[in-house]
Design a protein that fits this description.
The chain has three helices and seven strands, in the order H-H-E-E-H-E-E-E-E-E. The protein is of the alpha+beta class and about 160 residues long.
């Protein structure tokens, strides 16, 4: 396509690209003329003992040896499989009876947990304090075995 058939917008885009290329060449030429050369050493950043970035290397006298086997690693993320069987306490923030689902705010972690009517042991409504277990649902963590919280366990009826 010849330049005579270019639209105004295409000409503007071409001019901007050419200007950027020209600016880049000028910048390269100025760096070359100034004699400032960036070296690998000028690009290195160091981390001090407090985790802050620094331009100076750390003092070898302050170095402390740490036994890597003494470091204890543990995961505290929400793992539903690890928590199964553990009763949690929470408040029902929302529950829609017609749709059959809602959310419970865990009092220990302030995490919002999904609850479905199939996992209820008794009827609940908003602002109820409930006990529940964390389980894995089709779309993530869900509350299982949800029942109203009582200070004393409810008496079991004899058949």
């Amino acid at each position: 396509m010849g330049k005579s058939q270019e639209s105004f917008n295409k000409k503007e885009v071409r001019k901007k690209k050419e200007k950027r290329r020209k600016d880049k060449e000028d910048k390269r030429a100025r760096k070359k003329n100034d004699g400032v050369k960036s070296t690998f050493d000028s690009m290195i950043a160091y981390v001090d003992e407090f985790g802050k970035l620094s331009a100076t290397p750390p003092d070898p006298g302050k170095k402390t040896e740490i036994d890597p086997f003494s470091i204890e690693l543990k995961i505290t993320a929400n793992k539903p499989g690890a928590d199964s069987g553990y009763k949690r306490k929470g408040v029902v923030t929302t529950f829609n009876d017609s749709k059959g689902y809602g959310f419970i705010r865990d009092l220990a972690s302030s995490q919002s947990v999904f609850v479905h009517r199939d996992n209820l042991l008794e009827a609940i409504k908003e602002n109820n304090v409930v006990t529940f277990e964390i389980g894995r649902g089709p779309r993530g963590t869900t509350a299982k075995k949800v029942e109203l919280f009582r200070d004393q366990p409810a008496p079991k009826e004899l058949s």
